[in-house]
Known about the structure:
There is one protein chain. By secondary structure, this protein is α+β, with helices and mostly antiparallel strands. The chain has a domain of 129 residues: Aminopeptidase (3-Layer(aba) Sandwich), CATH 3.40.630. It has 5 helices and 8 strands, in the order ββαααβββαβαββ. The chain has an 8-stranded mixed β-sheet with strand order 1-2-3-4-5-6-8-7. α1 packs across α3. The radius of gyration is 18 Å and the shape is globular. It starts with 6 loop residues before the first strand and ends in a 16-residue tail after the last strand.
Amino acid sequence: MSLHRPQIRSDDDPDLILSALTEGDLPLIGRWLAEPHVARWWDPPETGIAHIAAHMTEAHVAPYLIVAPGRPVGYLQLYHANPDEFWRPRRLPRETYGLDLFIGPSEALGRGLGTRAVRLSVRHLSALPEAARLHVDPSPDNAVAIRVYDKAGFVGAGAIETPDGPAAYMIREPQRAILSAPRAKESR
């Protein structure tokens, strides 16, 4: 299993799909980056599109279009934090994975799509056998993002300073299927 897949979906939520981002999706992403609710937290379209396009060829970042139900509603990127230039010098457990996202069209806000996309991402990342930790780093002023991550099981782990400014560092241990050994039958 890897970060890069054509699609990520779950039988638990079949109407939500993470679809690998293509060059054809970039104009839509650019329009969303200009939306006030996105522009407050993300790079402006002029630089944001270049960063997102670069992620399409990076081995440790996987950009996706959030599709629900059947139409694009947001952007999400999964990343392996350990090789990242910013995260590399920090003391992270080996094999830490993160994610960032935004909901694009304003009419899609407040419908739980962000929470659903984060939960789907958590399931996908938790299935990576090497994953030791999942993390996110929203702005401490982004109460909506913090609430979404909290609903998906992330917990606050302190404040950090990132290239984008102060951030609320939140972590989650991967969910693993716990298999128990069959119980021996008792003899009478």
